[in-house]
Design goal:
mainly alpha; 0% strand
Length: 174
């Protein structure tokens, strides 16, 4: 009788122990394999047959292909927007001038994505100095960014006290 209880307890403990080893997927901050990154592979648009083969443009090696994806332009066109506004060399329309002026009032950093990626890599490296030695798997993403997390309920309190509407966060009592 004692051995049956022991075996049952052992099976339950082993099941719970192995359940804690589950992979967290996208929350893993390091590359988990040597294979290609599946998020960098994008399908091409369907091939189109030209109306007249006599008027095809000359091939230009290294230039863009007509079937390459252009996600920003495709998204703007899908909702009925003007894709000409996506050209960074085009002048800013008069209707957007005030917005651009307000957004760039403190200056514009042209390589902001690269500098943020470098700062984030340094931050994660600092956070991982002593956290590399663990007996059990932990969520490194949550561990690194724990202090940077915003509690929506706590942040909504001052806005609600000031009379602002905060529909995205429900009240505490719900």
């Amino acid at each position: 009788m004692l051995s049956a209880r022991f075996a049952t307890g052992f099976v339950i403990a082993a099941t719970l122990g192995l359940g804690g080893c589950a992979d967290k997927g996208l929350r893993t901050l390091t590359q988990t394999s040597n294979g290609p990154d599946e998020f960098l592979v994008t399908p091409a648009k369907p091939l189109e047959q030209p109306k007249d083969y006599a008027f095809l443009p000359a091939p230009t090696p290294g230039s863009k292909n007509r079937v390459d994806q252009v996600p920003n332009a495709d998204a703007v066109a899908a909702v009925g927007g003007n894709t000409a506004r996506l050209d960074p060399t085009a002048p800013i329309p008069g209707s957007d001038a005030a917005l651009v002026t307000a957004a760039s009032r403190n200056g514009v950093q042209p390589d902001v994505r690269q500098s943020l990626a470098e700062e984030d890599a340094k931050f994660r490296k600092r956070q991982a100095r002593l956290s590399g030695f663990r007996i059990f798997k932990v969520d490194r993403y949550e561990q690194a960014y724990r202090r940077e997390t915003l509690d929506p309920f706590e942040a909504a309190v001052p806005y609600r006290r000031a009379g602002g509407r905060t529909p995205s966060a429900p009240p505490y009592d719900e």
